[in-house]
Amino acid sequence: MTSAPLSQQRQLLELQDLDNQLSRLAAKRRNLPVLGEIENAVKELKENKRLQVLAQAEAGAAKQVLKRADDDVEQANNRAKVLRKRLHSGTVSARDLGALQGELDQLGKRLSVLETKQLQALETYEDLSGKYNELQVREGEIRAFGRELTAKRDSEFARIDSETSQVTQRREQLAASLSQSLVQIYERARKATGGLGVVGLYGARSEPAIEISPQELSAIRAAERDAVIISEETEAIIVRMDD
Predict the structure, then answer these.
(1) What is the DSSP letter of 180?
(2) Lower Cβ count inside 10 Å, N or C end of the chain?
């Protein structure tokens, strides 16, 4: 059976406490609320950019419709100007005068329809352009909020990393002062159990609590003072805390 000074075995409990602190700090760093906020901001930004692409395409198509409507109105107005100029020139024969006036009347009706379409096209374009502009404004707001979140994250990371560095230094100093073979046994136990390397035994009570059979407890009490005792159930080191 491996042996190590009982005083050093008891220091493993302090070592485990430091390791637990490091685990908690690492978990805290991974699960900072601000990280979720940043993730949500990134998702919102991606969705915003997707909507911008669609809105820009829709606004572009609406602009083309408006351009065609403008061209149709302009063309009809130009034709009306030509007809009115001929009508008032005094050179139109009496026979052609009625036909010319009839064409002007029809053109006036057509122009009314075209102007209605033009107005509708303008309203559609302005509405879609407004939506696109709103998305651009929102993008700026998301990016500004993202910068705030990033600064907050970096600040919290720095605070946790500083604390982690201090605990790590204490842990390294303590581990270096102990028997390396004892530390290796402890490390193997932590790996095998998922974090539990050592338990303290106070009479018949262990902390953290593990199951110890009466037979195992008798064997522990009968073992040499400096014997390194491994739990039959968990593979963790059992350290006797009663003198």
Answers:
(1) H
(2) C
